[in-house]
């Protein structure tokens, strides 16, 4: 777990993002128990409700499920869902604007591919 938060997003969103990152990176696998709201609130010295709100985002997205009296666990297919969403977000945030600008300045598909390959050879 990272030890500090920044001001770019609400803390509860950063908690959800941190756990989602752990799922994508393979640190949390399907069926693994997720850190509890109590542990999160103690570790980060935050309100327990803030930690619960972060975990609720993951539950609502179907990435984590609650097992009454036991805790929260990574749902089956969570990594696959996260990867699909992040690929879609990547396309919207980076690729689509790049392609729009490439069209605007009349770059060919070959030139774009050349730029990408050239950069990956560094």
UniProtKB/TrEMBL annotation:
Residues 9-77 form the HTH gntR-type domain. GO terms for molecular function: DNA binding; DNA-binding transcription factor activity. PROSITE patterns: HTH_GNTR (PS50949). It comes from the Bacteria. SMART domains: HTH_GNTR. Pfam families: GntR. Keywords: DNA-binding, Transcription, Transcription regulation. This is GntR family transcriptional regulator.
């Amino acid at each position: 777990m990272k030890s500090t938060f920044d001001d770019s997003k609400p803390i509860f969103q950063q908690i959800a993002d941190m756990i989602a990152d752990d799922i994508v990176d393979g640190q949390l696998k399907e069926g693994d128990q997720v850190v509890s709201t109590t542990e999160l609130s103690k570790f980060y010295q935050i309100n327990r409700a803030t930690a619960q709100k972060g975990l609720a985002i993951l539950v609502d997205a179907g990435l984590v499920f609650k097992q009454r009296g036991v805790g929260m666990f990574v749902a089956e297919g969570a990594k696959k869902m996260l990867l699909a969403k992040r690929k879609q977000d990547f396309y919207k945030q980076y690729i689509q604007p790049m392609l729009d600008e490439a069209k605007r300045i009349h770059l060919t598909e070959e030139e774009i591919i050349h730029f990408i390959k050239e950069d990956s050879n560094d």
